[in-house]
Design goal:
The structure is a homotetramer of 219-residue chains.
Chain A (H helix, E strand, L loop, with lengths): L7 H37 L2 H8 L3 H7 L3 H25 L4 H13 L1 H14 L2 H10 L5 H19 L9 H12 L5 H4 L6 H14 L9
Helix pairs in contact in A: 1-2, 1-4, 1-6, 2-3, 4-5, 4-6, 4-8, 5-8, 5-11, 8-9
The structure holds a DNA duplex (21 and 21 nucleotides).
DNA sequence: AATGAATGAGATTTCATTCAT
DNA sequence: CATGAATGAAATCTCATTCAT
């Protein structure tokens, strides 16, 4: 009855230790889930395989995520939040729309982030996951709309500042830009890496902002 | 191209009648498969549902397609061929690269073709189907590479003619262009249709060829 | 297109043959399910075991019953209907309430019917099945209330005719009577069969109608 | 009966304190187990839920009861013993068989005891628990037979005293009486409470002892 | 003693594929 | 040819039980 009264520190320390371990475990699971998911897609990813890669038992996965779709949601949320956060930071800078959007492109194409965004984009456009989510939840979460809004805001600000072509509707600009974030979907079509992320940003940025016509031929 | 045209009467007539019926049946199956596949994705599409929509028994589907993945392959081939054919026709015209590519965009965005290309693109980037195909077949078929080559040829010709910016590597141009073909992946993110296909072509074409910067701000 | 037009008989014959086979299969499954269920109870009954006893594969069971609970519902319905039907027939006779109710007791205690009613009663009072049913359906079905109503009607008619003690509320009479239908719940408590069904009816009838006091001691 | 009464002070005091705490804990667990078991039945009751209701960890339950079935056994034993004790006390009075048995009915129908007996009766006739017990132990314990014997003794004494109808075999009387102890199994069939326990005793007693025939129609 | 994370056997259910009719 | 019943592998999820802390 008179417990944990005199040493709240200890208790907190202990519970936060456990909490940390829990977090680590959950992160490990998410990590492996991410790997398997991007290799195999939602349906061909089995809880068994995720567990095996983490080196734990199947049931343990369920200790952290109540169902397979929840695991995916957690992953999606993590990536969406991380992406959203970055986009929001970028949006707050005083840079031009072009610089801002190129920042986002760079962030997307780089390293580990790239993989994450890859999966994030894949999940975003996956019919099966979408159906599952709509059925069991009631939508894809608000981060998606938030993300769209942040980029829209950048685009609109660019238009207002006279930087971007105001005659093209923002939704079209938005979709087109989002499409640029996952050009790797077409990787298998082409093959290995011939271009560095940085180069890719320069090229894609140039395409998106200046078009692909040769400068001399521009009317 | 020149099949079953000059064959002797009776037998052929009968067999070609049967053949035609067979074809019709197969087409019907493909049609329904297409519908279900784009609604539910590969894994959530069941042979049972396809058969039910066609109004035939499950076994009958197997009479036409030896397995579920073969059904998808047939669909994919059909769409890829149709797309390839169109692209090849376009490539042979004397138009500029921009006009050619805008033709392809228009073809993709329009009507029923649009749906087909949608599914085609979805299958192209679907992890599960890709893995399945690599496992059971050994790749995605040659149409994909053929298609890439046709578009590459258009792009390279454009560069050679001084129409397109030669400083951007063709693979990047190619990927970016392919990315423009399935902007609907991001539909749920945005919502209903606010733009007609024709407008979309104009807007997307302008973005791809001239960029999104405001004309006045172009150096 | 011009099928089954000239020989509707054949078609019907064929389809009714299939239908009959289907029925037989379903009945066989129900039969085995009944056996396993009364041996092990709902939760310890596995579809695997039912299938094994029938000599078919697990999936085949699901071809006939969409889920385990549906299997139980079918069984329950069958028994409830059979019981209800009998009770209704009995209710329509011109016999006295006592004779009617003793008919029902006899019917319950006899042979195969006994087992069925046993299971029926067991399911009726099984917490797990009840919860399952309330959750997945929305109640126990109407047969149960119908059955209660039929017996209530008999009791009330008996009261009206001056045969039964009108000072005891019908619900109490009803519950008590229903309690008499599954005296075997207490079998393990007591042991093997020492009394024949017919004797049991006589004894139980005497208890229910005249009480257990010795005739001489009745005030 | 005469335990821990004369032991030396210190150690015993401490150990009996611990012992008492242990007992209290065990009782609390039993209490919650009882609640969950009667709500959900044996299989749908999870150790997790019991622990949660007590407010302890799952492992702690296992410190008190080596397995789930042991928990049920303990509960069953407790109720059976309590019931048995009461029945034995009643049996020792000088009352008539009717008064004795009505005492037992009253005890069963009243308040908290009622719930306990309810569960007790439910467990008694639960197929899954029975099978589990037979498998892991080897029977249902002796209290059950003891209880049967006590009631049998009352019945036989009643017969010997000329109070009860000696022409009805005692086993039948016994079963029938036991059947009266859990009329609530049929509650869902009827609905809410319209009768008080005391009234119920009077009605059920009258039925059991005098029958349901109208007094005037008794020959 | 108490905890609760981890385990893994086992249950339900789905569905591509086969094959006798 | 067409059918659709049958199959059984495989996947998700649950939960009694164990055990390191």
């Amino acid at each position: 009855m008179v417990q944990n009264q005199v040493e709240p520190a200890a208790t907190t320390a202990r519970s936060s230790l456990k909490e940390r371990q829990r977090q680590e475990r959950a992160d490990l699971i998410l990590q492996m889930a991410e790997a398997v998911l991007s290799e195999k897609g939602y349906h061909d990813t089995t809880i068994d395989e995720i567990a095996a890669r983490v080196g734990i038992a199947k049931g343990t996965v369920y200790l952290h995520f109540p169902s397979k779709i929840d695991l995916v949601v957690a992953l999606f949320d993590r990536d969406a939040n991380s992406f959203l956060e970055f986009a929001q930071q970028v949006a707050q800078t005083g840079d031009s729309a072009r610089v801002k959007l190129e920042h986002i492109l760079r962030h997307t194409y780089e390293g580990m982030r790239g993989k994450r965004t890859q999966l994030f984009m894949a999940l975003l456009s996956s019919t099966s996951v979408r159906n599952e989510l709509i059925e069991k939840r009631g939508g894809m979460g608000e981060q998606v709309t938030s993300l769209a809004r942040v980029i829209e805001a950048i685009l609109e600000a660019g238009k207002a500042a006279g930087q971007l072509d105001a005659t093209i509707p923002t939704p079209v600009l938005l979709r087109t830009f989002l499409g640029l974030l996952s050009p790797r979907s077409f990787e298998p079509l082409i093959g290995g890496e011939q271009v560095s992320p940085e180069e890719l940003v320069r090229y894609v940025g140039r395409i998106y902002f200046q078009g692909i016509l040769s400068p001399t031929s521009q009317s």
